[in-house]
Amino acid sequence: MENFARLLKESWALVEGDRKRLSDYFYARLFLLAPDLRKLFPVQMAGQGDRLLEAIVTAIHTVGDPESFDEYLRALGRDHRKYHVTADSYTTMGIALLDALRTSAGDGWNLEYDQAWRDAYAAMTEKMQAGASADTNPPYWHAEVLTHERYGPDTAVLTVRALQHPLPYRAGQYVSIEVPRHLPRVWRTYSVANAPNADNVLEFHVRTPGAGWVSGALVRRVRPGDLLRIAAPMGAMTLDRSSERDILCVAGGVGLAPVKALVEELTTYNRTRWVHVFYGARRSADLYALAGLQELVAAYPWLSVTPACSEEPGFDGEHGDISEVVSRYGPWTSHDCFVSGSAAMVRATLRALAADQVPPQHVRYDTFGDV
């Protein structure tokens, strides 16, 4: 297994520097081999390649951990039911992927790499199809928007209710959302911002600083009464109820969503674990959920919240990037750590925790982008 993982990572290093070329070639080859598959994808393919490559990178980095590898791919297979992918589709995608890898890698590609990817893709698709076959839930849920509240020009908090079938998920997980009225066949992942409840209501925090399609629609165009589609939950940033370690949560911007869900779950059973939440943004106006967190602090003595701003000198709280603030308060070596935010924020925080010698197995994280 170690040699197998090495071959995958070595060969991936040959192509990851030009991901756009890789994804463009993959989709061109795929649609040439199977034109009917084109209708499964959005009209505008911008961003689609990023999601493909993100899935590949995640799989590569978990291949050395059989349990995580299996769990991730089974969840990915359940999620892909929303695309109505068939066994033949997987076969065709495998041919297109290998062709794209060979072409993008050029002279650096060899037979060992080729066989490693054949074996990896076979293992990946076997687990994905097993996950899809074992799932008794619908491919996706229809959900009605109940409330929609704006926080400034680019952030919104909305609640939705899944219709017909309950949507089973765990606090800290994320789901894919489609806005069929505005953007059919375009899906984007969002963490659920509340713990599961009997009313089957889900809360989402969405930010669209740029021209993100789905995020832009959810912030600016969606209204109460609109219908969304929500796919199967994924993600492993969940609580270990058997752990007795105290908890550190680090959130940047709308990365607060899964942290808020984790805290809500903890309010239902926690009595012995101290929970420290660090919540950062550039400016205080971006700390849109701080008042709600402070209400929880007043109700639960085991909870503390430390807000921080990196670009507001007069802010009445901590100053600096949230990763730097967290480092000032350590050590965190005996904590279960959860990190959620932008890719840059997550990387910086993971480096800070590594410098604090937090064991990697005690750290879980999710990153947020804009699509």
Automatic annotation (TrEMBL):
<keyword id="KW-0813">Transport</keyword>
<keyword id="KW-0408">Iron</keyword>
<dbReference type="InterPro" id="IPR050415">
    <property type="entry name" value="MRET"/>
</dbReference>
<keyword id="KW-0411">Iron-sulfur</keyword>
<keyword id="KW-0520">NAD</keyword>
<dbReference type="InterPro" id="IPR009050">
    <property type="entry name" value="Globin-like_sf"/>
</dbReference>
<dbReference type="InterPro" id="IPR000971">
    <property type="entry name" value="Globin"/>
</dbReference>
<keyword id="KW-0521">NADP</keyword>
<keyword id="KW-0479">Metal-binding</keyword>
<dbReference type="InterPro" id="IPR008333">
    <property type="entry name" value="Cbr1-like_FAD-bd_dom"/>
</dbReference>
<dbReference type="InterPro" id="IPR017927">
    <property type="entry name" value="FAD-bd_FR_type"/>
</dbReference>
<dbReference type="InterPro" id="IPR012292">
    <property type="entry name" value="Globin/Proto"/>
</dbReference>
<dbReference type="InterPro" id="IPR001709">
    <property type="entry name" value="Flavoprot_Pyr_Nucl_cyt_Rdtase"/>
</dbReference>
<dbReference type="Pfam" id="PF00042">
    <property type="entry name" value="Globin"/>
</dbReference>
<keyword id="KW-0349">Heme</keyword>
<dbReference type="Pfam" id="PF00970">
    <property type="entry name" value="FAD_binding_6"/>
</dbReference>
<comment type="similarity">
    <text>Belongs to the globin family.</text>
</comment>
<keyword id="KW-0561">Oxygen transport</keyword>
<feature type="domain" description="Globin">
    <location>
        <begin position="1"/>
        <end position="133"/>
    </location>
</feature>
<keyword id="KW-0001">2Fe-2S</keyword>
<comment type="similarity">
    <text>In the C-terminal section; belongs to the flavoprotein pyridine nucleotide cytochrome reductase family.</text>
</comment>
<dbReference type="Pfam" id="PF00175">
    <property type="entry name" value="NAD_binding_1"/>
</dbReference>
<dbReference type="InterPro" id="IPR039261">
    <property type="entry name" value="FNR_nucleotide-bd"/>
</dbReference>
<feature type="domain" description="FAD-binding FR-type">
    <location>
        <begin position="138"/>
        <end position="240"/>
    </location>
</feature>
<protein>
    <recommendedName>
        <fullName>nitric oxide dioxygenase</fullName>
        <ecNumber>1.14.12.17</ecNumber>
    </recommendedName>
</protein>
<dbReference type="InterPro" id="IPR001433">
    <property type="entry name" value="OxRdtase_FAD/NAD-bd"/>
</dbReference>
<dbReference type="InterPro" id="IPR017938">
    <property type="entry name" value="Riboflavin_synthase-like_b-brl"/>
</dbReference>
